[in-house]
Amino acid sequence: MAKVLQDLKYTKDHEWIKVDGNVGTVGITDYAQSAMGDVVYVELPEEGQEVKAGEDFVVVESVKGANDVFSPVSGTVKEINEELDGAPELLNEDAYSHWLVKLEVSDRSELDSLLDAAAYTKLVEELEAEGH
Amino acid sequence: MKRTLMYERHVAAGGRMVDYSGWELPVQYDGAGIKTEHLNVRSKAGLFDVSHMGEIVVEGKDAEKWLSSLLTNDLTVMHDFQVQYNIMCNEKGGVVDDLLVYRYNAEKFLLVVNASNTDKDWEWFNKHLPAGGVTIGNISMKTSEAALQGPSAEAILKKIADFDPSALKFFTFADGVTVGGIPAIVSRTGYTGEDGFEIYAAWEKGAELWDALMEAGEEFGIMPAGLGARDSLRFEAGLPLFGHEFTDDLGPLEAGYGFFVKVDKAGGFTGQPVLKRQKEEGLARKVIGFRLEDKGVPRAGMEVANDAGEVVGWVTSGGYCPSLDTNMANICVKTPAPAVGESLNIIIRDKPRKGVVVKAPFYDRRYKK
Predict the structure, then answer these.
(1) In angstroms, rounded to a whole number, what is the distance separating the alpha carbons of residues B350 and B352?
(2) Are residues B42 and B159 in the same domain?
């Protein structure tokens, strides 16, 4: 089964976020990278861009197709992971050590509606049982 | 959704199953993926389940003449047991489908058509069927098909066939042979730009055929390959896909496949007047090759603009090419089309991304002729 880390929050759309103070580090999950397949390009937002929770703000292009990534929470883009520019395949190698974006989180209460590791594990198990 | 008899094999091999024209087929396999499967076909061998393809038998004293009236290529040059690529056009010169024609003799042919078009083709054939002299049979659901593709395909097939596949020339076929003891039709054809074979057997022999080929290919490093690799391989090798390079509106000359269209063919064919006029008067638009130099991945349907910002066309197929490690596109542009080396832009998520016109196909096909 796809890997799920304990200390992260998750969305139903397979993003993860780790919050430290007001900074949220966002990435895609192991399940997401596996479903997308070989990643060939990651289109990241501009630093300073404001995003709303649920808004598509990153595109991960795999050989198979383009995949929208949705922001788990509202905030302002503080930093983007430029390492992915030359090596997008890092997402396939380890989707949890290679983040996409760091956000200045504007409303911490939005974190409460995200899934914890147990709930996300259950979701992934269900999807995998269905053969997805 | 329909399943082929190789379905269980795909699931066991980690196939990610998707809906393709009503068929549940693997897009890729876990542990490999499109890129790996693609490169393995280019370097060793891949096995594709193409049982979803449609097969139609045409028989009767007028079989050749009737087919000729529907298809763009010259059927009179065919020998028995030869295969010919053909395009079937509508009255406006657009495409109904592209297909392979297997000639047994002048009175018996097997047609292999796209899965997504099998029902439409069947209706089209019935609509155009004469009162006598031709009978047609749809054996799509009675036929399993596997495509064995790659430089090791011949050696793999040789192990388990009851004939010498090296004697089978490009675009010819054998019937009444066996593969792994299974009665089969084998043609030296494919959709990857590599040497290879397409193998047809009775529907109920599907899983057995799959197993026999995978087992024979093991020592050669064969891998199962899904729909994703099938598409990236054909795209790179400059092979058209219905719904992309061909549509009911975009015709074979516009798409760049005029070689298969004999506009002066005796007896005529559906769409001929329009195509003949296009050839004589010139095309209003045409499909050309394009390499994206900016970052991003072109995808079918995206707009193409010149440097002045004027939209001049659209992407018919696009994507990352694993063998070239570049992002390429087929683009349909209005004429006069820019020459090789000239720049154009693909509009990706509202931003123009620059690239250059290149020669197609992008990958040099390696058929054994």
Answers:
(1) 7
(2) yes
Per-residue pLDDT tens digits for B31-78? 899 999 999 999 999 999 999 999 999 999 999 999 999 999 999 999
Distance from the first to the final alpha carbon of chain B: 39
Range of the domain at A111: 9-120
Kindly state whether residue A130 falls inside one of the protein's structural domains: no
Tell me the shortest Cα–Cα distance from A73 to chain B, in angstroms. Answer: 22
Tokens 């090596």 correspond to what residue? A87
Q: Measured between CB atoms, does A132 come within 8 Å of chain B?
A: yes
Nearest CA among B302, B366, B316, B305 for reference residue B338: B305
d(CA B109, CA B142): 16
Cα separation, B117 vs B359, in Å, equals 30
ipTM: 0.87
pLDDT digits (tens, 9 = 90+) for B294-351: 999 999 999 999 999 999 999 999 999 999 999 999 999 999 999 999 999 999 999 9
Q: What is the dihedral of CA A130, B2, B4, B5, to 10 degrees?
A: 80
- DSSP code for B15: E
Integer Cα distance of B229 and B38 in angstroms: 5
- The series of mean pLDDT values per 10 residues for chain B, 369 residues long, is 97 94 95 96 98 98 98 98 98 98 98 98 98 97 98 98 98 98 98 98 98 98 98 98 98 98 97 98 98 97 97 98 97 97 97 97 93
Whether residue B305 is contained in a domain is answered as yes
Q: Which amino acid is at B80?
A: D
Whether B266 is covered by a domain: the verdict is no
Residue in A61, A63, A65 closest to B35 by CB: A63
Range of the domain at B199: 7-51+141-236
Question: Hey, is the C-beta of A40 within 8 angstroms of any chain B C-beta?
Answer: yes
Planar angle of CA B341, B236, B335, nearest 5 degrees = 40
Query: How many alpha carbons lie under 13 Å from residue B28 in its C-beta half-sphere?
Result: 23
Q: Which residues of B touch A65 (CB under 8 A)?
A: 299
Helix (H, G, I), strand (E, B) or coil at B282: coil
